[in-house]
Amino acid sequence: GGRETKPHLGELGSDTIPTQWSQAGDYKIEETPAGTVVTNSKAGFSFKVPEGWKVEGQEYGVQQYFLNLLSPDSQIDAENKSLTRGCGISLETLYQKQEHAFVQNSIARYNQDPQKLPDNEKIITISGYSALKTLSIPLDEKVLQIYGEAIQIRTPLSPDGLIEFGIRMMPDSQVKCTKEFDKFIADFFIK
């Protein structure tokens, strides 16, 4: 399915398993000779911020915490905080048993029977871990011009953690952003 956002399972009521997110303090951002590196030791991963991009933390609701990486040419709409130019990568680390099981099972099912893979999904490997990659391109040209296209990558870690990150790209930056995102994925390190 081309779902834009996944439902946050923690909000459905008392019978669901709560979601926990890595918070600001779990991410260490340092300048190194190789560039800006972000490490989350608790979850066991690190990545390189694309050159010239800026990193911003964003809180969402009570607990949800994201890191946003914005391209040098990016512009954000002040009112609704959406991207209007360039590209942005958004990353969160969450601990949620149901979401973990769902992604893990999808990967296992697709590995067993690749025919079952929807056109917009793909299994990729990040630092030796299997991940589910989902592409969302609005079919409506007007919508595409406003929201751009998105790629989401969900990587299950043991026992119930997930690294979820995605990129949103405006049409005029799509080629450049895709290149940066491929490099971001290639350099992503999970212990």
Would you mind describing this structure in some detail?
By secondary structure, the chain is α+β, with helices and mostly antiparallel strands. It is built from 3 helices and 14 strands. Strands 1, 5, 6, 9, 10, 11, 12 and 13 form an 8-stranded antiparallel sheet that branches. Strand 10 and strand 11 (129-136) form a beta hairpin. It is globular, with a radius of gyration of 16 Å. Residues 1-14 have low confidence and may be disordered.
> How many DSSP-defined strands?
14
User: Which parts are unreliable, with pLDDT below 50 for 5 consecutive residues or more?
Assistant: 1-14
Q: Shape, please?
A: globular
The structural class is alpha+beta
Query: Please, how many helices?
Result: 3
Distance between the termini: 31 Å
Output the helix-strand order.
EEEEEEEEEHEEHEEHE
Task: Report the C-alpha radius of gyration, rounded.
Answer: 16 Å
> Sheet bearing the most strands, described?
8 strands, antiparallel
| Portion in strands | 35-45%
